[in-house]
UniProtKB/TrEMBL annotation:
InterPro entries: FBPase_C_dom, FBPase_class-1, FBPase_N, FBPtase, Fructose_bisphosphatase_AS. Substrate binds at residues 115-118, 206. Its EC number is 3.1.3.11. Mg(2+) 2 binds at residues 112, 115, 278. It catalyses: beta-D-fructose 1,6-bisphosphate + H2O = beta-D-fructose 6-phosphate + phosphate. One of its GO terms (cellular component) is cytosol. It comes from the Bacteria. This is Fructose-1,6-bisphosphatase class 1. Residues 7-192 form the Fructose-1-6-bisphosphatase class I N-terminal domain. Its main location: cytoplasm. Pathway: Carbohydrate biosynthesis; Calvin cycle. Binds 2 magnesium ions per subunit.
Length: 353
């Protein structure tokens, strides 16, 4: 069927008609940025931009040339349209000010231009993640305007640059997947109204950090690894791609639980993943698809940010498993997961030695 399929533009215009029609135009600019990044990533080593940019980004991580170019793609495609009061990026320490020769609007675009970029040199799927907020007044956005809890997001999405390039989007009316038709250059609606199965037998975590995890996470993962010989009574499968976009995409397609928990490897860091442009957009997409997204001790979308590049623990995916792991955190915090030991037998023996 060549014609009549729903394109991203048609979907966005229909879904944002009225109050947020300007946001629709912004989403079409984001899609244009994503197409440019897809073309660049798809060239691989032929792009001539593999390797390090010989710089360290605000995260203290080595910046790759392709990180810089992906960031440029978002800024150049989105700065001119008149919908934005400002932008914030994983690659920029401070918010990006819309140049004064462009009109400003009331939306805020927050993004990780190339997530999983350490995988780009080894040809593993990477992605871009974005989130849209709004402010009540026009004019240049200041840092506090971005520090809004995730439940205030108006839209969220990611692009995954895999064998196919897909854009997965929510504007608050479910989570929907679009596949890039390279011949026409259109994103075509291929996965309407995605639903995450409530139950799963597949977990994703970097188990090399196991010794640093908190006990409830060690308990949960230990039960998954014990499989049918343990209390869960069923075998589990494990995945770890080290590209959050690819993990979340797999979970949206077939269920699963993704964990990047707090670990004490670096006690100064409450987690690896960033709240504003990784956890919040992914949490909105997952919840809109019927899943759950938690820090282990609370809903991610209710966390009030206090810094632009704030990190936090991330547990998301099939609702039953996320809720089980939240229960394990609660039992740990209240001591309910440890057998009650009577004071008579706690520290001292009845028989003095
Ligand atoms: P990079 O963007 O530096 O490759 O990090 C990717 C990421 O933020 C996220 O996409 C992965 O889930 C996670 O880090 C992988 O972390 P580990 O390398 O510690 O497994």
């Amino acid at each position: 069927m060549l014609f009549g399929r729903t394109t991203l533009s048609k979907f966005v215009i229909e879904q944002t008609r009225g109050q947020h029609s300007e946001m629709g135009a912004l989403l079409i600019d984001v899609a244009a940025a994503v197409k440019g990044i897809s073309a660049l990533v798809g060239k691989g080593a032929l792009s001539g931009v593999a390797g390090s940019a010989a710089a360290i980004n605000v995260q203290g991580e080595e910046q790759k040339k392709i990180d810089v170019l992906a960031n440029e793609a978002f800024l150049r495609h989105c700065e001119w349209g008149g919908q934005l009061a400002g932008m914030a990026s994983e690659e920029l320490e401070e918010p990006f000010r819309i140049p004064d020769d462009y009109p400003r609007g009331r939306y805020l675009l927050v993004f990780d231009p190339l997530d999983g970029s350490s995988n780009s040199d080894v040809n593993v799927s990477v992605g871009s993640i974005f989130s849209i907020l709004a402010r009540s007044t026009a004019g240049a956005a200041q840092k506090p305007d971005f520090l809004r809890p995730g439940h205030e997001q108006l839209a969220a999405g990611y692009a995954i640059y895999g064998p196919a390039t897909m854009l997965v989007l929510t504007v608050g009316t479910g989570t929907h997947g679009f596949t890039l038709d390279r011949e026409s250059g259109n994103f075509i609606l291929t996965h309407p109204a995605i639903r995450i199965p409530a139950a799963t037998r597949e977990f994703a975590i970097n188990t090399s950090n196991e010794r640093f995890w908190e006990p409830p996470v060690q308990r949960y993962v230990g039960e998954c690894k014990a499989g049918s010989s343990g209390i869960r009574g069923v075998d589990f499968n494990m995945r770890w791609i080290a590209s959050m976009v690819a993990e979340v995409h797999r979970i949206l397609m077939r269920g699963g639980i993704f964990m990047y928990p707090r670990d004490n490897k670096d006690p100064a860091k409450p987690g690896r993943l960033r709240l504003l442009y990784e956890a919040n957009p992914m949490a909105m997409l997952v919840e809109q698809a019927g899943g759950a997204a938690s820090t282990g001790r609370g809903r991610i979308l209710d966390v009030v940010p206090d810094a632009l590049h704030q990190r936090l623990p991330v547990i998301l995916g099939s609702r039953e498993e996320v809720e089980r792991l939240e229960r394990y955190h609660h039992e740990y915090d209240t001591g309910a997961d440890r057998p009650f030991v009577s004071p008579l037998f706690a520290e001292r023996s009845l028989f003095r030695d």
